[in-house]
From TrEMBL:
Peptidase C45 hydrolase domain mapped to chain residues: 121-321
Name of protein: C45 family autoproteolytic acyltransferase/hydrolase
Cross-referenced PANTHER family: BETA-ALANYL-DOPAMINE_CARCININE HYDROLASE, PEPTIDASE C45
Keyword Manganese found: no
Domain of life: Archaea
Keywords assigned: Acyltransferase, Transferase
Taxonomic source organism: Natrinema soli
Length: 363
């Protein structure tokens, strides 16, 4: 495999789901197996996860009926039970609630945003290294969604998950994400899931309506969203079960890792991942030294940094860790919001090339 598989989903929400399910049956089955093992390792048994997914399914229908229809389409197309597909779509809440006690290892991501005044082409960019379990790299896909009633968008997601974590829509709205952990994660699991919110961002026509899914209701678990617009706007939303906080670019550059930048939040991830404390700072330094002349080559070089390896933001497998704690940069993503393009790797950026995916019909 030299790049992430790109599939176009079109028609109704249900029809998009059927195409997704039919195309990626094997990858979806692999994802379910990987996550059930991961849940069990973190002390959440299979029956509990299925019950949680079952309880959340009617709530997803209530929050976002089209998301629920696309989820059911994936189940129909793949021949896999709708509960197991729902389980994939709420896997963030299951895992991050388990992480909140601070005793379990987890790996996170390093993201960035660049305003036009610091880039060589005067475009707006967002992107990240997405670090996660090694087997998940084999199930990452790029979905291009074309539906009549919502903006077209391009996103990286995991097979079986409706909502893309990193993406761009036809209006120049883009999103990248980071995991965060705070003490109250999972206290109320029955809130709108992370992946549903990601999809709603990418289906927004305006920047204010893209922010709404992130700030209008409380989250079940903490998470970070770097939201950008092609016209030169970037806002970072740090969400926790107690409410959101906001971080803005400084001198045209923004970076974020896996701890809260707002002092008003109690942050737990650095207890498990102390490297988060230097990853965002090092990425900022690497980008700022080229301010005014930052181009994709500069970004790619910065994202290949190995300081602190294997606990670097170009992350590689640490074979000294338990297999369930071994992670790597599964994909590195650079999104040009002005051009509506998404560049992504299959694996760590130092070892692989970036493939470019263009959003068809982009403005």
């Amino acid at each position: 495999m030299t790049g992430l598989t790109h599939v176009t989903l079109s028609g109704t929400a249900y029809e998009c789901g059927v195409i997704h399910g039919e195309t990626f049956v094997d990858e979806i089955q692999q994802n379910i197996s990987v996550y059930l093992d991961k849940f069990a390792y973190h002390g959440v048994d299979k029956q509990t996860t299925r019950e949680q997914a079952s309880d959340l399914l009617p709530r997803i229908q209530e929050w976002n009926p089209e998301y629920a229809e696309e989820l059911r389409g994936i189940a129909e197309g793949s021949g896999i039970s709708v509960i197991e597909i729902a389980l994939l779509n709420v896997r963030y809440e299951v895992l991050y609630a388990a992480y909140s006690d601070g005793s379990l290892g987890v790996d996170g991501c390093t993201s960035f945003g660049l305003l036009p005044e610091v880039t060589a082409d005067h475009h707006t960019y967002v992107g990240q290294n997405w670090d996660w379990a090694e087997p998940i790299a084999n199930t990452l896909i790029v979905t291009e969604v074309h539906r009549d009633n919502v903006p077209n968008h391009l996103a990286v997601t995991e097979a079986g998950i409706v909502g893309g974590k990193m993406g761009i829509n036809e209006h120049g709205i883009g999103l990248v994400v980071n995991g965060l952990v705070s003490p109250n994660d999972g206290d109320d699991p029955f809130r709108k899931p992370f992946h549903v919110r990601c999809r709603e961002v990418l289906e927004a026509e305006r920047f204010d309506t893209a922010l709404k899914p992130l700030v209008a209701s409380l989250h079940a678990c903490s998470s970070n969203f770097v939201l950008g617009h092609a016209d030169g706007e970037i806002i970072d939303v740090e969400a926790s079960p107690n409410g959101p906080g906001y971080v803005y670019p400084r001198n045209g550059v923004h970076t974020h890792a896996n701890h809260f930048a707002n002092n008003g939040f109690e942050s737990c991830m650095e207890r498990q991942l102390p490297d988060t404390l230097y990853r965002a700072r090092r990425l900022r330094q690497a980008l700022e030294q080229h301010s005014g002349d930052i181009d994709p080559a500069t970004i790619k070089s910065a994202l290949s940094d190995h300081f602190g390896r294997p606990a670097s933001f170009c992350r590689h497998i640490d074979k000294n860790k338990h297999p369930q704690k071994r992670t790597q940069t599964d994909t590195s993503v650079i999104i040009d919001l002005t051009e509506r393009t998404l560049c992504a790797t299959y694996g760590p950026p130092c070892e692989t090339t970036y493939n470019t995916y263009q959003l068809g019909g982009a403005a």
